[in-house]
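explain this:

___
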Amino acid sequence: MPTVAPLDLDSHAITVAWLDDIPHFALADGVVHRLDHGHKWVEAHDGLLTACPDLSETSLVTGGEDGRVMAVSTDGTATQLAEIGRKWVTSVAAGPQGAVGFASGRTAYVRFADGKLREFPHPRSAEGLAFAPKGMRLAVARYNGATLHFPATDGKPVELEWAGAHTDVSFSPDGKFLITTMQENALHGWKLADGKHMRMAGYPAKVKSFSWSAKGKWLATSGAPAAVVWPFQAKDGPMGKAPLELGTRGDTMVTQVCCHRTEEIAAIGYADGMVLAARFADQKEVLLRRAGKGAITALAWDREGRRLAFGAETGECGVVDIAG
């Protein structure tokens, strides 16, 4: 039976991440907590809005209501990477060669490892950001589609259009597809080779969490009373194919999904705080955490895929050891 080591904190969990195999919990009040031979913490922001691990998984990139972008390392050092005045930094993304992307208002920024900053203005607000798995290419989710920028050159951006408000964005691990979440209850996708559209609709709620399986064959999503998992094995992705539905629980909505690092398994967090793991092949489920006080808002597997860190909107956090 899996065992749970709880960590009860007092603020909404924005992101959880494993840095050097140490679980970190970034909360909305601006404090980043870690479990490293005891409970330790550092205040990174006056109000934290967004966070993600860097590609080496040795520091956490954070953005806040104080207009700052920080890097929090495993020894608790918080280093300022950029500051844009009293504006909210609403999205961050970790890129190759130490680059960091972040967004505020209508502008997306890329900060290179040498500290140089480039700005990419948009007609409407720049929402979610993602770097391509290969090369220096930044995708920005925006109103009526997504834009691909090439920050290291003066190459013309590529505009991908689809009506509606696009709120977050992700490249498939092979770089062939770009997927956005939308303000409506749907995902949209583009096959980058030919611009072919993919529409993934029918959700009862907004999709706020999505996660690619280890080899990119599947995309797990929240927004329904089950984890909706789309197949991406075919050259046109999920078009004409039905998704898997894992961990169906009556009317209780899935709020977070996180695919395992090596196995075709997803951790699934729910609106009531429960966490399950479900296997794609046979839909077998394992209960990882019983329901708690509030919705699961963050999940992350460690490198070995043996432990799962979780965080909830009520500040209930912790680590599940699958092996017990």
Observations:
- The CA atoms of residues 51 and 62 lie 4 Å apart.
